[in-house]
Each structure stands twice: as structure tokens, then as C-alpha cells.
Design a protein that fits this description.
Length: 400
């Protein structure tokens, strides 16, 4: 055979979103490549042989030879089938050696081994295809092997080294995928750790502020303080029941914020007019746990508490394929509040910004603006995802 041929307060964080579980076991590795399946691998080698056979047969036809295609396809197909089987077995049982072998061992071990393997392949091929070479007349088996081995040595070595570097390349690619998978897993674990740290930061902050509110009521209204303490117990129970879940159905978050608002009603009895409006189609939308409470708390602390009469509006609706929450409150404007508090927006808002970054990356926005001198509005927007089952307890922290 022949040889082979926004605005300043607009929030748009940089890291990309990740879709993983917030209570996540180690992810699966990349798995075995499909090309290494024996049927695919051996068939691919055989197909190469048949293509070369077709080329050889067409060249012979153009040269005037009347040789039938069966012999040509049988000879080439058998040879490449044998090499396909050989290299699949080598990849299966000697893959690590092939992928790690150094240059010195390639020269001292693999190169001599390639000559031996080419001879063994030729011996098997002659047994299976005894009619080649037909023009030289009957010859003994070993004479036949010697003739074809010399004639086909260049081609056999080319096939051998093609297989060698193919397996080596597949090994490099597999390891690259494994490193990427490990890096992705580490990134996921880091994000989970950051989210857990933010949750641990938020809960004591919320508890501290609420206990201060209860303490102030103890001096003026014991019954209200007692009721507020019971509601705080309910909020803590909700928080404990959620555990480490990072994304929860919106209706659970609304239940939490309604209890919190009821507590604030006791503290600011008759001073606040509030409205809560939620699109009914969004009750099963997935939202970050406890993402409304820090914003509402900030509205009370830095706005509503500074005036005698105030209003608070919470609107949650759909904006195309996004969920949008707008929290508007009256009180002191941003400039006044910044002058009093040195430009700080509090732990709560910074916490929400960081959590949105980890959950949604560049897909989330967070803005705070002054509508007029006495009204401030916070707007949060992120991709909308509806839970397939309203009872489903999803723990993913990234949304696709």
C-alpha cells in the first residue's frame, strides 16, 4: 500500500454568574470523552482506512487497472481496523504512560516498541488478508510478512505515531477539562462561603436593631414590646427553617417582610402609611433570602424615623424577563441623610449589593435615588426564574 496522505449609584458587578447549589456536594468531573468509546474510536480508525481505500481504487481506475474495489477496501479497512483496536487497548490500559512519558523514554522505549508493534500488526494483517500482494505469486507466510512489512513500514509508523499523539492530545484535553472543573468547583465553594458569611453578618445586624426597638418599647408600651418579641421569635423561626437556602420563593420572602412590617407598625404606631403590592404571577419567583428586609429597615432607620408622618411603598412586579422591586419611602432626602451619617448607607444595603453580585453577577442592578427632597427610592432588578414546583426548595445561588 502507498503511504498515507446607569447612574453613580447604579450597581453592576463584574464576576460572571454561576449556577450551582448553595448546599452543594463536589460536582462530577468532566467524565470520559465520547471519542474514547470503543465503537466510536475503532469505527473512526476504520473509516479513515476506507477513505484511503477509495482514493487508492480511484487512482488505479484512472491509471487503467481493472482491479475490483472489494480487495482494496478489505485490505485498507482491515489494516486500520486493527490499528483502531490496538490504539483503543493502548489508550485503555497504557493511557497514563502515553500521556506522561518523557522524551528520553520515547526514544529508548516507545520508538523501539513502535517497530515491534508494526511487525505484530503486519503479521496479523497478513493472516487476515493473504491475497496481498497478488502479482508476486504464491509466497510463504513469513516471506509475505517480510515483503509487506518493508513495503508498508513508513505507513505503519505514520499510523502508530498518529495514534500516539492522538492519545497524548486527548489526555491533555481531558486534564484541562478536569482542571477547569476543579477551578469551577473551587469558585463555587468560595461563592458559597461568601454567601454564608454575608448571611451570618446580616442576621446579627437585624437581630441587634430589632432588640433595640423592643428595648425602646419596654419603656412606653409593655404589651406592644411583648407582641413584638413574639413576632421576632416568628422571624427567627422562619430564618432557622430556611437554613442555608439562598434562593427562596417570593411568597416566603413576603411572609417574612409582612411580619417585619407588623413589628414596625407597633413601634411607629399610626405614623406610617404603607402599601405592599406584589404581582400575583410572581409568588413562586425565586429571590435571594431576606433581600427586602435590609432595604425596608434602611428606609425606617434613615428616612421614616426622621419625620413625624411618613409613607412606605413596596412594589414587586415583572419587567420583561426580570423581577423588579421598588421600595419608596418618605423622610429625609439622600443629601440630608448622607450629611448626618457621613455618606454611609449601612451594613444592610452593602450586604444586599454583595449578595446580588454573588447570585447574579452582571445580570443584577441595584440603584438608590432621590425622587424629590423628601422621597427616596431603591430599585432592585434581576433575572426572573419561576420555581417549577411551588414546594420546591431550590438552593441554587446563580440564575441562568
Amino acid at each position: 500500500m502507498p503511504p498515507t496522505p446607569p447612574t453613580p449609584t447604579e450597581f453592576a458587578p463584574a464576576p460572571p454568574q454561576i449556577e450551582q447549589s448553595a448546599d452543594l456536594p463536589a460536582p462530577r468531573g468532566p467524565g470520559r470523552l465520547a471519542i474514547l468509546h470503543p465503537a466510536i474510536f475503532i469505527s473512526a480508525f476504520t473509516m479513515f482506512g476506507l477513505l484511503f481505500a477509495l482514493q487508492e481504487w480511484m487512482n488505479m481506475r484512472r491509471a487503467g487497472y481493472s482491479r475490483g474495489p472489494a480487495g482494496e477496501f478489505g485490505a485498507w479497512g482491515t489494516q486500520y481496523f486493527l490499528w483502531g483496536v490496538t490504539w483503543w487497548l493502548l489508550a485503555r490500559f497504557a493511557g497514563p504512560f502515553i500521556q506522561d512519558v518523557r522524551l528520553t523514554r520515547i526514544v529508548t522505549v516507545v520508538l523501539p516498541g513502535s517497530l515491534v508493534l508494526c511487525l505484530v500488526e503486519q503479521m496479523i494483517w497478513v493472516l487476515l488478508v493473504p491475497y496481498i500482494p497478488m502479482k508476486r505469486g504464491p509466497v510463504s507466510y513469513w516471506h509475505h510478512v517480510a515483503l509487506t512489512f518493508i513495503d508498508d513500514l513508513a505507513e505503519s509508523l505514520a499510523i502508530f505515531w498518529f495514534g500516539f499523539f492522538l492519545i497524548r492530545g486527548i489526555g491533555y484535553y481531558q486534564r484541562l477539562r478536569e482542571r477547569e472543573s476543579a477551578a469551577s468547583h473551587l469558585e463555587t465553594e468560595l461563592a458559597n462561603a461568601k454567601l454564608s458569611a454575608l448571611r451570618m453578618q446580616l442576621n446579627p445586624h437585624f437581630l441587634f436593631n430589632t432588640m433595640n426597638s423592643i428595648s425602646s418599647l419596654m419603656r412606653t408600651d409593655i404589651d406592644a414590646a411583648d407582641s413584638m418579641l413574639e413576632q421576632l421569635s416568628s422571624l427567627l423561626r422562619m430564618s432557622l427553617e430556611r437554613g442555608d437556602v439562598q434562593l427562596i420563593p417570593l411568597h416566603d420572602e413576603i411572609e417574612f417582610i409582612e411580619t417585619y412590617l407588623a413589628m414596625q407598625d407597633m413601634r411607629y404606631a399610626g405614623r406610617v402609611t404603607r402599601t405592599l403590592s406584589v404581582d400575583p404571577g410572581l409568588h413562586d419567583a425565586l429571590v435571594p433570602a431576606m433581600f427586602l428586609q435590609p432595604i425596608v429597615e434602611n428606609a425606617y432607620s434613615h428616612g421614616i424615623s426622621k419625620v413625624d408622618r411618613a409613607d412606605l411603598s413596596i412594589e414587586i412586579g415583572r419587567d420583561g424577563q426580570r423581577l423588579q422591586a421598588r421600595i419608596t419611602n418618605s423622610g429625609k432626602g439622600l443629601k440630608t441623610a448622607q450629611g448626618v451619617h457621613g455618606g454611609r448607607r449601612g451594613v444592610g444595603l452593602a450586604n444586599i449589593r454583595n449578595r446580588l453580585q454573588l447570585h447574579f453577577g452582571e445580570s443584577a442592578t441595584f440603584s438608590i435615588r432621590e425622587i424629590d427632597s423628601s422621597h427616596v427610592q431603591v430599585t432592585v432588578s434581576f433575572p426572573l426564574q419561576i420555581a417549577a414546583d411551588s414546594s420546591e426548595q431550590l438552593t441554587r445561588y446563580g440564575v441562568g
